[in-house]
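Worked example 3 (structure in, sequence out).
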């Protein structure tokens, strides 16, 4: 029974990722540059449950977002980008002490490698001529690095203060014994 707590929490984080992505998105350059706060719930999943869970939450939220609000053809590369972002957050932050440096590393890797790099590449493959939008996407990523660093670090400290990590780890251990 206690094994359901992580699954239910991940389900809620998928819904929260979807909501934060769709309801908070701001698109200053039409559909080419999207600023949203879906990373908050993805990072929460990665902090609480690890890289795989962070990736799963991000990927499933991306798929859900496509089916709820389609804006063109489904691009599996964008789902892969989302999955990798969740995995990166988990690899850098999971089971570590809160640190501004680690948070900045995670935010920089996701913003530059995934958002500005890989996602732009997949958009270019789908829409030839998309390379003209690389500069606005890089600027957006550079702006989002400090924003993500601050928000993720605050979330991480909040989780520590509320002792959420211990609650989830205990429920996982209890489920394995039973």
């Amino acid at each position: 029974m206690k094994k359901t707590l992580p699954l239910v929490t991940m389900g809620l984080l998928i819904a929260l990722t979807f909501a934060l992505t769709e309801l908070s998105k701001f698109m200053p350059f039409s559909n080419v540059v999207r600023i949203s706060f879906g990373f908050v719930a993805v990072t929460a999943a990665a902090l609480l449950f690890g890289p795989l869970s962070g990736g799963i939450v991000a990927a499933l939220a991306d798929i859900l977002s496509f089916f709820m609000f389609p804006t063109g053809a489904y691009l599996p590369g964008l789902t892969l980008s989302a999955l990798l972002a969740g995995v990166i957050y988990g690899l850098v932050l999971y089971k570590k002490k809160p640190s501004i440096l680690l948070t900045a590393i995670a935010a920089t890797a996701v913003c530059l490698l995934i958002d500005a790099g890989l996602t732009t590449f997949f958009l270019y493959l789908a829409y030839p001529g998309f390379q003209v939008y690389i500069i606005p996407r890089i600027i957006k990523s550079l702006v989002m690095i400090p924003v993500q660093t601050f928000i993720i670090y605050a979330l991480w400290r909040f989780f520590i203060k509320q002792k959420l990590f211990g609650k989830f780890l205990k429920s996982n251990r209890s489920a394995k014994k039973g």
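Notes: The first helix runs from residue 4 to 23. The CA atoms of residues 46 and 54 lie 4 Å apart.
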